[in-house]
Amino acid sequence: MKIRKNFMEGLEQKVFIHENKKEELFLIAIPSIEWSYLFTYEDDDIQENIFQSLKRRVSEEKAGVIASRILQWTREM
User: Fold this and answer.
1) 4: which strand partners?
2) Residue ranges making up the domain that contains 6
């Protein structure tokens, strides 16, 4: 599991990223906003799906930034 720090408006959020290579999936969690998301390596349009899920918890602007960061972090793994 990787823990990344996301800084938004001067606040730090911990983003937990778990990769299950055997089942080919990622589990992402941000406890401070009570949000988590699961996706597989084969899912289409991951960034948009994460964005849609996040915008239920945070503003659209923040959701867009967080979704792009999550996509970048998972691609690095």
Assistant:
1) 15
2) 2-76
